Amino acid sequence: MILIGLEREFRGKDAGLKTNALVALGSCVFVLISLTFRGEDYVDTTRVLGQIITGIGFIGAGTILQERGKIEGLTSAATIWCSAAAGCLAALDFFVELAIVLGLVLFINFILTIIENNLIRKREKKEHKENAYFKKP
C-alpha cells in the first residue's frame, strides 16, 4: 500500500504517501476490529466494509476541486478509495488479491498517465495547428 502513496508522492499530488498509507491502515484496523466480534449474536461484521466505503467517499469528495470549469483531484480521490480497499484486503488476509490491486493501481496511475499525457499533447498539437490554419493574417 505504501507503493500507491509513493507513486502519488512522486507525481507531487496532495494525497500522497502519508494520506494513502493512513487510509489503508485505518481501513485495515476497522476491519480487524470488526472481525473480533465475528460469531456474536446480532453482529454483522460486513457492515464495517460498507461504512468504510461511505467514509472514504466523503474523504475522496474533499480532494476533488473545481476551478474555472476544470475539475481536479478525481484520480487522487479514486486512489484513496483503492487504498481503503487495499487495507480491507490486507485485514482479511487476501494477499494475492492485494498484490493484484496494488499492481493495477500502480499501472493505472503510472503507465496510463503517460499514455494519457501523450494523447493530450497530440490533441493540443492538432488543435494548435488547426487554430493557426484558420487565423487571419
Structure description:
This protein has 137 residues and is mostly helical. The chain has helices spanning 2-10, 17-35, 46-63, 74-91, 95-134; strands at 65-67, 70-72. Strands 1-2 form a two-stranded antiparallel sheet.
Number of separate strands: 2
Q: What percent of residues are in strands?
A: under 5%
| Span of the ends, CA to CA | 56 Å
The strand line-up of the biggest sheet is 1-2
* Number of DSSP helical runs: 5
Count of individual domains: 1
Mean pLDDT: 86
Shape descriptor reads: elongated
Task: Work out the helicity level.
Answer: over 70%
- Compressed to H and E, one letter per element, the order equals HHHEEHH
For the largest beta-sheet, the strand count, sense and barrel status come to: 2 strands, antiparallel
Which residues form runs of ≥5 with pLDDT under 50? none
Radius of gyration (CA) equals 20 Å
- Secondary-structure content class: mainly alpha
Quick rundown:
The protein has 5 helices and 2 strands. With 137 residues, the protein is mainly α. Strand 1 and strand 2 (70-72) form a beta hairpin.
SSE layout:
Blueprint: H1 2-10, H2 17-35, H3 46-63, E1 65-67, E2 70-72, H4 74-91, H5 95-134
Which features characterize this protein?
137 residues, mainly alpha, two-stranded antiparallel ribbon, 5 helices, 2 strands, 76% helix, elongated
